[in-house]
What does this fold into?
Amino acid sequence: MGNLKRLYIIGAGFAGRTLASEITKKAIFGEVVAFLDDDPDKIGKKVDGIPVLGPIRDVALLLRTNPDDEAIISIPSASIEYLKELYDILKRANFQKIRILPGISQIVEGDAHFIQTRSIDLQDLLGRNPVTINLKQSLSYVRGKRVLVTGAGGSIGSELCRQLLSGGAARLYLLGHGENSIYQIDKELHLLQEEGVGEKASIVPIIGDLKDSDYMDHIIKNLKADTIFHTAAYKHVPMMEANPVAAIENNVLGTENLINAALKYNVKRFVHISTDKAVNPVSVYGVSKYLCEQMVLSAGSKDAATNFVVVRFGNVLGSRGSIVPLFQAQIEKGGPVTVTHPEARRFFMTISEACSLVLKTGGVGENGSLYLLDMGEPIRINDLAEQLIRFHGYEPEKQIKIDYIGLRPGERLDEPLWSQNERPVETEYSRIMRISRQLPAAEIKELLNNLRPICRFDTENPLVYRNVEALRKLLEPELVIK
It folds into this structure.
């Protein structure tokens, strides 16, 4: 044991104790030399032979740490404010390596495992205190069922899959068109299962393209999925402005293929993930997501066996392609950090909280309904950049410059969460609101009919194929937004 790195577990509660037990049993991660805790009833005692030291603020500064020592924050219920305080204390105590057991709902009513810990980063210290959701209770509707996640290799899709592991699904289908991303989440989920996380669902990776209507029909027919979580979409706003036909073909017509197959084969639940960029859209991506919302809501108005629900929310911290990973990469190369505008603001929540609320809404949402996740207060992108620079140990402007590059095509200063024609109403569920609004089905159908020959070659109308000008004319706000 003497050659193993020394581990200090912050928090001697249930999660910390189960984590210490696993580490001691396996004897490969390191040696737990102490718990640090603020509970006077625990301080000075031993838990499974490991001393409990405290209070944390006082005792941490007395530790003789070395560069290989690690601190593991193991308090899933900790508030954002308390995590910030702990992080500051541990940094002052010269801990170079700080890990965290995320306060995510999949460890509620379950053991904590070392594999769930990861290096702490800024997203753990931002935003607001996430709502505590009993995941096992919330996911009772998928227990023993078959669940399909589209875009399973993406940030939202992969986190949904991690949390669905605790839901007792009989089978978890991972659908995506990116071989590498599906390989990664498939491998991760199997590793989590091997380490005792979640339940023994059968995990099935599937490579496929939403744009292929025949394949989507074949997949939904043969998988016999009970629930679909539809997260797949092209999402990068400036890139989709440069490739608008691809955005509509993948996001809109791909979603249409999935809806048609779900209706045809009586999938019980269809949960569509939307975005604040669908509100009064100013980008092709935003318009595509707006149309997807209305298509799903329209499908929910039909007399069918499928329960269609839309869940809309803003940005998530740390998602691929979001500004946090971009800022981190810019800081690591010495800057500058690029911000579009000093007054640009966005709503943010953590990926884990967003996914927990999506899973909750999927079970309680009513057919043909649009739900909005409460995002709290918007954050100035400039403030986020400055916090991230300081998190990495630098001083904004003095050591790492911030450059303002101007708004790019399809971007705006603020992203509203609902339009002037929408009215959010509180539900009985914390941080989940319901919104009333729907585009007439006839209008959606006419627009889709006009979009198809632009995206898919039609011998009867060949001149509009991939015609960006014709596409943009169809998508002018007065034709889409009333």
About this structure: Confidence is low (pLDDT under 50) at residues 478-482. The radius of gyration is 24 Å. The chain is about 35% helix and 20% strand.
